[in-house]
Amino acid sequence: MNKGIYQDRKTGKWYIHTTIKGKTCTIRGYDSKKQADNDYDKAIKEWSIKHNLYLSQSILLKDLCNNYFENRKVNMSQGTLHKDKSQERKLLATFGNAPITLAFNYESVQKFYTEYKNDYRFLNYYKSLMSFAYDRQLIDKDYSSLIVLPKTKRKANTELKIIPPKVKQAFLDTIKNNNEYFIMFTLFAYLGCRLSEFLGICYDCVDLERKQITIKRQLLTNGKLTDVLKTSNSYRIIPLNDECVKLLRHKCKKITGRVFPISHTSFKRVLKKYLPDYSSHSFRHTRASELGAKCSNLGDVLFCASWLGHSPSMFLNTYCHNLDNNVKDKFLL
Questions:
Q1: Residue 250 has what DSSP assignment?
Q2: Judging by beta carbons within 10 Å of its beta carbon (0-12, 13-18, 19+), is residue 194 exposed, middle or buried?
Q3: Is residue 15 within 8 Å of 26, Cβ to Cβ?
Q4: Fewer CB atoms inside 10 Å of the end CB: C or N, the chain?
Q5: How far apart are CA 40 and CA 27, in angstroms?
Q6: Rounded CA gap, 122 and 109, in Å?
Q7: DSSP state of 156
């Protein structure tokens, strides 16, 4: 189906011209484009019933992609949602803005799987989109079982790269002459948050009176701020110590905007210059290990997990190395 709302140059009237499964629907006589656009869905529905066509024939692939994106935006993490838009553009370039029943029929699925057999991300997006449409009864059959995703290469089990205390202190001493960098990296090492979350901190997130910072935004790699974080646990409040409060008092003189107006690339370039052997995520692992070493009971684990935006089980299994011995000694008494 090709949706189109056009204006007749001779009469000045607007009309709907749509093709559904080879049949053409033309409705004329609208005084304005807005009126034709508002009446489009109703007109297509009546025309489809009259010609014994499924109503889902009028739903375009682009509309389904937009609905799927908005659904994921609400129900899932948004750290990587901007990447799905690239798969959406690729899918629309493959099928065009076709009806979803033509994009997800048996022949289309087989042809798509044959052509993109080794493209894991593209196949996964297409398969998820098909299941999304079937769950909402927009298509009659779900052929997602015909698509077998290729096996992805497993990442090697590497140990968490933690920055030694002497190396971290030497790094901070090196950049101490640059007040802007010193404040930024001191706070980054203390908070232990993800880089995108740290760069997304705005002045309205900082409360120096209560000595806390609220993590509620993140800066995407394309330079846009978003309110959707990686997980539901990522929305959190982190307490500040006196040193961080003192440093932020010199920094927080504005009301709006980001506290550290620097991009992902610039941040990593500075880090590579002064600390080439470690990534920005190493600061998060280092801070998590420091917090885990101080845990002695379940209450400590819950507090530290909320600090980092982790689930308690994930934090307990990854960073609390000394907790098992403490528990064992306690019950042997």
A1: H
A2: buried
A3: yes
A4: C
A5: 9
A6: 13
A7: P
pTM: 0.57
Pairing of strands 14-20, 23-30: antiparallel
Report which residue type is found at 128: S
pLDDT given for residue 78 in this prediction: 43
pLDDT of the residue at 26:
80
- Residue 30 to residue 14: CA distance in whole angstroms: 5
CA–CA separation, 28 and 12 (whole Å): 11
Sign for the CA dihedral angle at 180, 183, 185, 191 comes to negative
Instruction: Return the domain boundaries, the chain.
Output: 5-58, 61-146, 166-276
Q: Are 81 and 70 in contact (CB under 8 A)?
A: no
| 216 φ, ψ (degrees, to nearest 5) | -140, 0
Task: Specify the pLDDT at position 11.
Answer: 81
Residue 138 vs residue 261, higher pLDDT? 261
Beta bridge partners of 5: 16
Higher pLDDT, 136 or 33: 33
The one-letter amino acid at 166: K
Q: How far apart are CA 116 and CA 112, in angstroms?
A: 6
Q: What is the spatial distance between Cα 15 and Cα 199, in angstroms, rounded to a whole number?
A: 49
What amino acid occupies position 222? Answer: N
CATH of 166-276, one of 1.10.443.10, 2.60.40.10, 3.40.50.300, 3.30.70.330: 1.10.443.10
Structure tokens at 185: 């990296």
